Amino acid sequence: MKTKIAVLADYASVSEGGKLNILGIFSNIMARTAPITHAQMHLVVQFEFDFSEAGQKDFRVRLMDLDGKEIVNLAGQLQIPQPSGFETANINQIFVFNNTTFPQFGEYVFEVLVDDAIKAEIPVRVMQMKEG
Mean pLDDT across the stretch 62-80? Predict the structure, then answer.
């Protein structure tokens, strides 16, 4: 399996034809004071699975601070379809985070794990806005 895309965005969707739409990719969040609650963000990941990897996979998304403290943890399963022939299967995943609280300014990372192996790390920096 390969991770083809892994980003944070203001919004994302998958169209009826299977196209992945991503709007407002970002890696910094600006705020005046801490703690910071971010109203909504979409974590977007596109995986490419080879024909031999069809079946169910466990996934987990964790938001961690740089000290290794876990802030968010969600888990579920991915169902990888059996492609015809020796093709690959692209799987789009959009995780919506509402009212996520970052306890302080600093560096954070979203980790995306498939079957307990880290497949993507998406950093996000929470920065203090300068007065003026």
Answer: 94
Which two three-digit tokens encode residue 2?
């390969």
How much of the chain exceeds pLDDT 70, in percent? 99
In the chain, % of residues over pLDDT 90: 83
CB 44 within 8 A of CB 20: yes
Strands (E), the chain: 2-14, 20-26, 28-31, 36-50, 55-65, 70-80, 88-102, 106-114, 117-128
Looking at the structure of the chain, the number of domains it has is: 1
Which structural domain range is residue 39 located in? 2-128
In the 8-state DSSP scheme, what is residue 105?
A: S
Task: Check which CATH number belongs to the domain holding 10 and give it.
Answer: 2.60.40.2550
